[in-house]
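In practice, a research group might receive sequence data for several interacting partners and want a quick structural hypothesis before committing to experiments. The following worked case mirrors that situation: the sequences arrive first, and a predicted assembly follows.
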Amino acid sequence: MSQATTPQKIYLKDYTPPAYAVKKVDLDICLYEQQAIVSSRLEMTRQAAGELVLLGRDLQLQQVSVNGEVLSSAQFRLDSESLTLIDAPDRAIVETKVIIKPQTNTTLEGLYQSGLDDEMMFVTQCEPEGFRKITFFPDRPDVLSEYTTRLEAPKTFKTLLANGNLVEAGEVGDDRHYTIWHDPTKKPSYLFAAVIANLQVLQDHYTTSEGRKVLLELYAVSQDIDKCHVAMQALKDSMKWDEDNYGRAYDLDRYMIVATSQFNMGAMENKGLNIFNTSCVLSSPETATDERSFNVKAVIAHEYFHNWTGNRITCRDWFQLCLKEGFTVFRDQSFSGDFRSKAVQRIEDVAILRSAQFAEDAGTLAHPVRPESFVEINNFYTATVYEKGAEIVRMLANLLGKEKFRQGTDEYFARYDGQAVTVEDFLSALSVADERVLAFMPWYRQPGTPVLSGGVQYEQDKVVVRLAQKTRHVPNYDAPVALPIPVDTAIFDSNTGQLLAEKMLLLTTDSAEFVFDGIQLSEGGHPVVSVLRNFSAPVRLEFDYSDEDLVRLVSFETEGFNRWQAMQTLVNRWLFGSFDNVDSIAGLLKTVTDELLDCDPMLAARLFDVPSQKELAMAYDSDYDPVAVKARRDEFIKLIACALADKTTTWYQALPIQAYEDTPLARGRRLLRNVLLDLRLLAGDAAAEQDVYYQYDNATCMSERLGAFTAIINHDLGKKSLYIANFYEKFANEDLVIDAWFNAQALSSRTSIDDIAALMQRQDYDWNTPNRVRTTLGALAAKPVQLWTQQGMALYLSAVERLDGSNPLLAARLLSALARWYTLGDDTKAMAQSNLEQLKQKVQSKNVLEFLDNMLTV
Ligand code: PHE
Ligand code: ZN
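A structural hypothesis for the assembly, expressed as tokens:
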């Protein structure tokens, strides 16, 4: 095989507007057994200097004509990425005909086959650059066009869908049929979608605030159609929510969602025709855990919200990806927070931010929320763009307050509807409500997580809070500047627990002092200051709390997130050896659990959180020893379990299995019950084993069943093989549940690397289905003790190598989990480096090569 050439970098500063606009697109896709023929007609007009260049990849060009004249090969240049028409006129009707092979397209980009036999379907994935794998086109987000799509296929595929409204359907001979769709809204090519399949449909209606009656349709294979009700309700809730909170109503007569089993990401917001990974749309109590079901609702909302933030207002170029993703994630997080406890929502969002984004920002793949260069844009669908992007919007929303933020977003929608814009445009619209918004631009440009430090001094009724910030200097970027950091702060009385003051502080310089006057303390009391409440900025906090004050905050902080955070800080202090009082942590857990058991069991369950091994690894920039970290973490959990042994059984019994309900309370009870089950087994509670089997056997839903199943595996209980077989048999036809079966086994620390390898050898381990691939590799990445060994890396990297050829996007994503290899202790580090260097000799894709290049530059 040829050695790949150094991939080419693309820079934000090189942006130029497109030479031609495409007013109208007529696309005709005819599917045959071995191939598809795609004909397109583009109405193009010049709008800037430059040649008429159409992008295309893996297309067999049959013919190209301009204004009705077929071009000879002297009239165009064709290479592996583009088709350039020489001396094209300023007004050109460009027609092309190409052959593509969706049946053998394993990349899951462009038009590809998903599933086999009677579940076989053909779906598209165009974001960011998949449209060029379907037809020649100026495939960039700032070219907005009106699309008409004709689909033709054998009648065995009864479902033929494309964006917009159905305008015609009919037969072609005896065996084939077609549909024609027209999408009246102008859109970029990345929002194009088509589906050729044989699906069932669940229908409903929604009448918008503007009086439009919208047909809602969820498409899935027949055995899954009854698992679409949760998603349908979430869709209606989302439509209402966007009207109520942002004044945004839906704009077409039809909204379709299609579930497909082979998909690289969670879902895709194609205009009027979303395509979803089955894992993000299917849900039933028997097959989906509460966690997954809640995620289904969040992803439905996310894709729906894109209709305004992404589709109607889109990105000028892919450097602006956070413009749509950051804002949309913030919107879906707010939506989810309205359907559960806000504190728990925030805890979960921050946990994801910390474990995924902070790690990214601290490693070799660190990049700004708005990158300035890339080789492969697919590598930038990252936690930084999505999650940190959302945090920036959240800071702005908090700073402005509800009314002003709404004023700003109204301005954004009014000003830029129908356009492709930039982050600067977004801030400029919001600044109409408050000029301070403009100072947030450096958050988009500067990589690295700021460290916020500080402490408190007081004298009589005057309390001074000192704050300082520091961001590491990421190589190849400008020296860091001070960022505006909103720090939501409260002061409590140490004796009474009374809330004495609340204020949003805004740190805009390297350091500053903030004075609170007139603080009335009780006799002998001191001020307990709680900073960064509700995690008001995406920073690492190193605040000078005393252990005693943290204990106080766990009991009287009124803001749920910081209450949880105080407990987390204590746990971290124990894990890193600066706090030795495990009894005091256990004592707190007792009091708080007693208090929350009936009213907020979800928060109670979260208070038992112990940072994951991956998260703890973040604390080391060198000499990271995964074995020692895991040992310390295991020891802590065991000590806690034993210290609580007198309570866990009582609590567990207070949470008996009840008829299934999908309410925050019921979900909280189920989560807490599973947490307690695990603690009881750890403490060696003799009755616990029977309770586990009982919970599994009598489960009313997947959360209960999987909780018990996981406990059986993690604690290696006597009937383990029996239950592994039983679970498989019960759910053999449910791919997503079998994914959970793989994952629960792979995740257990008792499952060896050999065992994981054996799971990956199974017949039902399908390398073409990313969900299945992730069950084992995601688990291995979550077990640093196994991952960072010669054997673990060999297994992991052989998978990356294998996928590099078939699905480079997935290969690169998996690889990115290894970005902090250089923090390991010397021997392990050398081993990791040589493994990565060897991989570099064997891979071809831009995706994997770009990451490897960055990862090996330390
Ligand atoms: N735009 C999708 C989302 O965030 C994600 C996605 C990106 C899906 C690229 C597929 C390919 O909702
Ligand atoms: Zn998105």
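Before designing any experiment, note the following. The chain has a mean pLDDT of 97. The chain has five domains: 10-198, 314-445, 450-537+539-580, 584-612+623-730, 755-858.
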